[in-house]
Specification:
Layout: H1 9-30, H2 33-63, E1 71-73, E2 78-81, E3 84-85, H3 89-96, E4 103-107, E5 122-126, E6 140-144, E7 147-148, E8 156-157, E9 160-164
Length: 168
Amino acid sequence: MKRNQGFTLIELIIVIVILGILAVTAAPRFLNFSGDAKASTLSGVRGALESAGALVYGKAIIAGKHTEATETLTDPAIAIVYGYPAATEAAIRAAAELSTGEWAILPVTTAGEPAGSAADDIVIATAGTDAADLDTLACHVLYKPATASTGTPVVVTKPVITVVSSGC
């Protein structure tokens, strides 16, 4: 009487092929490499904005312009608000050196579009994004400009820079 002791080589190869096909088709759904890369890039932009803001603020302190509501630094010319880069495309591009080919910098005109924004904020998104996309945008960096207290001494609150990567 012959007893089976295991699987044949053909059966093992068929199972391995089927598992390979399943892995190739299912893995991209579970591993979001593209979204993770976009989110990481946005974190890099946030870091660039924070570093640029610190450098610009240092220059503003040296120039004695860090308590002024609006002012301009020279070399390079950067519009500042309380010593930090103003929420304008020109100031953000000059301070953080963000290229026009990679990044769209859009002013928020309607509060809440995108979510959590105010009318004086700036949105930094990938190139090709335009103002019509702001109401549904969920993959961007939101730059809220610096604010200051009224009175003496002036207490400056640095800009709030938020990465929104839920839609990347």
